[in-house]
Design a protein that fits this description.
The protein is mainly beta. The chain has one domain. It contains five helices and 15 strands. It has helices at residues 3-19, 24-28, 40-46, 201-207, 210-213; strands at residues 80-88, 102-114, 117-126, 131-141, 146-157, 164-175, 178-183, 186-191, 196-198, 216-222, 226-243, 246-257, 263-267, 273-277, 281-288. A 15-stranded mixed beta sheet has the order 8-7-6-5-4-3-2-1-15-14-13-12-11-10-9. A hairpin with a 5-residue loop joins strand 12 (246-257) and strand 13 (263-267).
């Protein structure tokens, strides 16, 4: 190949890169062959409004879905109690093409309406090289269950004798957009840019179809310990999910924002959030009452 041909080929490849069509370079070398038709799965994926919807919405739990049975009773409106299994993601098995998933914890949430407050009490257990437990109590108000005050206690325990090696406790209060947090390190004050919602409140909001009609912009309190600002939760359409013995159709909601990986909430036709996926940390609904 002479220098002129090399420059011409380089310019051609660059134009394809800018157009997002680099794979057509190999097709251009074999003009005599008919163009291969795209597979239906590729066409479906390309037609998605949001590239984070499918397959990434279920990709972290593909090794678990075959034995997952969606909960078919109960509601996430009003008072309810739920339990989720924590599903860890592992590298994809080359033979099956599915993630290596293990159950390594649980999350229990109880929601009760008490006068003008809605109270969430949660217990999260995680197991592995270390064992941890986070318990929270969140008092919320208003249509969206905005946080007004909370308490969170985090324990890291010795796996051999279940004794607490490390403990951290924090109390917080929100008033007129001002956040005051107190812990053993001192007092932290900040101002939220949006309504501060606990992640647990998203369950009842999704059950009420509020997000389906309009995007939700908020700041998020996660585990009662971390505030993630400028979050957006929006409806991404329906997807087909292979579960135990059948294929389930679920509504997919995607959350993006500062300090998080894209997170997906997969809800059935009754608004029950069956799966929450976020790459390494995923939740599968186990019980609802």
């Amino acid at each position: 190949m002479n220098r002129r041909d090399l420059l011409r080929l380089t310019a051609y490849a660059s134009s394809l890169v800018l157009a997002g069509r680099l794979p057509l370079l190999s097709a251009g070398r074999q003009k005599s062959r008919p163009r291969r038709q795209q597979q239906p799965a590729r066409q479906t994926s390309a037609a998605k409004r949001n590239i984070f919807t499918e397959p990434p919405a279920i990709e972290p739990v593909t090794g678990y879905l075959g034995k997952f049975r969606p909960v078919a009773t109960g509601t996430m409106r009003g008072d309810f109690a739920v339990k989720y299994d924590l599903i860890r993601w592992g590298p994809v098995n080359n033979k099956t093409g599915r993630a290596r998933n293990i159950v390594s914890g649980s999350l229990e949430i109880v929601r009760k309406v008490n006068g003008r407050d809605t109270v969430y009490e949660t217990v999260e257990h995680r197991t592995g090289q270390t064992t941890s437990r986070v318990t929270t109590k969140l008092n919320c108000r208003g249509k969206l269950d905005a946080v007004v005050r909370w308490t969170a206690v985090s324990d890291v325990m010795n796996g051999r004798n279940a004794q607490t090696d490390l403990k951290f406790e924090e109390h917080g209060i929100v008033s007129n957009g001002n956040i005051v947090r107190n812990n053993k390190l001192g007092t932290i004050e900040s101002v939220n840019s949006h309504t501060l919602l606990p992640q647990e409140a998203l369950l009842s909001l999704l059950a009420g179809d509020i997000v389906k009609s309009d995007d939700l912009h908020f700041d998020m309190l996660q585990n009662g310990l971390v505030i993630k600002p400028n979050q957006t939760l929006y409806y991404s359409g329906q997807i087909q999910i292979p579960v135990a013995g059948r294929t389930a159709t679920m509504d997919c909601y995607a959350q993006t924002g500062y300090g998080i990986l894209p997170t997906h909430y997969l809800a059935d036709e009754h608004g029950r959030v069956q799966l929450i996926t976020q790459q390494n940390t995923n939740w599968a609904l186990k019980e609802l009452s």
